[in-house]
């Protein structure tokens, strides 16, 4: 197949010539052909999104898995009702603010959109690209263009027409050269069929910009880890290893200075290096491709695919890549690098992060702690540690015995009932016991936090604040929840009456106490423990990133 080449980089040239090239590209699309088109993100491999047979050619040309859905490109929100069965008001709010631009919205589809385009899903991704040439082609063709990135499946995406030629020359009908892409990473994909909306793929529109407009957005697990076998992707880029050069990639995260030194320590003499400009001098003798300055994420986004693609023309046996933090465009850049690496990631920051978790019964602390464990964290239950020390700490036992004679029975075991009767009738005696406990608990807690190579810890303590344990934590987190939800949870968990559940809550400090004294609050209004755990995982990921970022700049 001969691939036609339409050079439209000079849009100030002969108007008639420009219009003729746009018309020719649009005609190829209407007739079922494949045409690579420029967008602000990456080059797309376009076909008539309403023609199932034409769409099949995209999968054949790319070698793309058939269960990987495509995005249709339109000229504006006025096209949404044509192809989407349900268009919520929020879609128009987002379109008014961010279209044309790098935002794809997942919506319920109409039957006019074929299964080949949606991979059999009842939803379709829609976006309006911010490139005058492609918008003109769509208007001229009169149909939405289904267009994944114009690279061979699995290879880094194309940000220039020359990249497209390298992968697709002879396989497609035409290539429209509209110059290099200005954003450099694909669009952000937001699922609007759920509440709250869910980020399925980070991209050229930062998550923070979306949340400033519409509030909290859930982040799908596919953003930070690979989908398992049998899990069906709801949007492009969720499941399969993407953006990968031929050599295996290792991504190194952390503060730029530390990640550069970690790569320097790990890399073999033959390894290829992708790094920020400031650290290229550390890798003399290596093949190096720079991403741009460590504080310039737009440049990094524009260069990341070019850096990955360039290594395909070299013989390096492995590649190490520095990774930006998750703020702004960094989330998308890091996502592309990690997918190129098959999520083989090394954390360079050895500085530990300690989170103090507190809150009343029934608020959801257990689910929050499980979320931290799912992120690789280690939980220290201070109540369990106290009871362990009652068996192992001679000093603790001596001090309790001296203050409360008879607290230990003849068998050497603590008589909790007797001690409780003594201290809970007097605030002075309770304060005295707490002082003894925490004076002994703090050194043991510090010892455990400094042991081993763990870098993420959670300290679980109902008396976190009163015992002074908060001073050991990078952040203290109040887990709170609406009263009625807490009552129902305690009744179900402990099989007790509503009256007793309310009495237990009333005996504890109110949420406002924890809210006012902790650094941050995580409110649990979820319908299930599983739902709250997923929400808490996203919350803690952002919080941990913020702590690490501050530590990297000496802000603690």
Description of the structure:
With 556 residues, the chain is an alpha/beta fold. 40% of the residues lie in helices and 16% in strands. It is built from 20 helices and 22 strands. Strands 1, 2, 3, 4, 5, 6, 7, 8, 9, 10, 11 and 12 form a twelve-stranded mixed β-sheet that branches. α1 (15-30) crosses α6, α10 (297-310) runs parallel beside α11 (330-340) and α12 packs across α20 (529-552).
Summary keywords:
556 residues, alpha/beta, 12-stranded mixed beta sheet, 20 helices, 40% helix
The radius of gyration is: 29 Å
Strand segment count: 22
The rounded distance between the terminal residues' Cα atoms is 61 Å
- Morphology: elongated
Structural class: alpha/beta
Give the biggest sheet: 12 strands, mixed
Number of helices: 20
Unreliable spans are: none
- Range of helix content: 25-40%
Average predicted confidence as pLDDT = 89
> How much of the sequence is in beta strands?
15-25%
């Amino acid at each position: 197949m001969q691939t036609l080449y339409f050079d439209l980089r000079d849009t100030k040239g002969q108007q008639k010539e420009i219009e003729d090239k746009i018309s020719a590209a649009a005609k190829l699309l209407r007739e079922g052909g494949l045409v690579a088109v420029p967008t602000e993100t990456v080059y797309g491999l376009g076909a008539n999104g309403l023609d199932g047979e034409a769409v099949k050619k995209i999968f054949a040309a790319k070698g793309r898995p058939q269960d990987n859905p495509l995005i249709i490109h339109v000229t504006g929100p006025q096209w949404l009702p044509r192809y989407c069965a349900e268009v919520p008001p929020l879609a128009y709010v987002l379109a008014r603010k961010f279209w044309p631009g790098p935002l794809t919205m997942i919506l319920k589809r109409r039957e006019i959109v074929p299964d080949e385009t949606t991979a059999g899903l009842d939803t379709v991704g829609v976006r309006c690209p911010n490139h005058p040439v492609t918008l003109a082609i769509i208007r001229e063709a009169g149909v939405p263009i289904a267009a994944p990135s114009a690279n061979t499946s699995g290879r880094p995406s194309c940000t220039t027409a020359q990249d497209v030629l390298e992968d697709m020359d002879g396989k497609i009908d035409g290539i429209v050269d509209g110059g290099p892409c200005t954003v450099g990473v694909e669009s952000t994909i937001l699922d609007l069929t759920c509440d709250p909306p869910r980020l399925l793929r980070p991209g050229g529109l930062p998550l923070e910009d979306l949340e400033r407009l519409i509030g909290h957005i859930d982040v799908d697990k596919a953003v930070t880890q690979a989908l398992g076998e049998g899990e069906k992707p709801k949007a492009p880029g969720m499941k399969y290893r993407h953006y990968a050069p031929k050599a295996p990639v290792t991504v190194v995260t952390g503060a730029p200075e530390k990640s550069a030194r970690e790569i320097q320590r790990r890399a073999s003499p033959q390894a290829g290096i992708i790094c920020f400009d400031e650290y290229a001098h550390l890798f003399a003798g290596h093949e190096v491709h720079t991403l741009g300055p460590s504080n310039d994420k737009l440049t990094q986004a524009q260069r990341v695919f070019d850096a990955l693609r360039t290594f395909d023309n070299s013989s390096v046996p492995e590649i190490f890549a520095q990774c930006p933090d998750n703020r702004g465009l960094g989330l998308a850049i890091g996502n592309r690098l990690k997918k190129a690496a098959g999520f083989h990631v090394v954390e360079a920051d050895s500085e530990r992060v300690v989170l103090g978790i507190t809150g009343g019964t029934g608020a959801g602390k257990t689910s929050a702690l499980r979320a931290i464990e799912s992120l690789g964290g280690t939980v220290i239950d201070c109540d369990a540690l106290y009871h362990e020390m009652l068996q192992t700490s001679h000093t603790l036992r001596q001090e309790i015995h001296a203050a409360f004679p008879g607290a230990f029975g003849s068998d050497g075991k603590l008589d909790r009932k007797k001690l409780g009767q003594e201290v809970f009738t007097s605030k002075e005696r309770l304060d005295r016991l707490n002082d003894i406990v925490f004076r002994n608990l703090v050194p043991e807690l510090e010892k455990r936090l400094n042991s081993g190579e763990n870098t993420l810890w959670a300290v679980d303590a109902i008396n976190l604040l009163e015992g002074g344990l908060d001073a050991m934590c990078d952040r203290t987190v109040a887990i709170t929840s609406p009263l009625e939800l807490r009552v129902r949870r305690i009744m179900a968990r402990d099989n007790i009456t509503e009256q007793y559940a309310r009495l237990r809550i009333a005996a504890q400090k109110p949420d406002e106490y924890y809210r006012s004294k902790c650094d941050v609050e995580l409110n649990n209004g979820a319908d299930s423990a599983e739902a709250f755990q997923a929400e808490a995982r996203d919350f803690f990921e952002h919080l941990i990133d913020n702590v690490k970022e501050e530590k990297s700049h000496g802000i603690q």
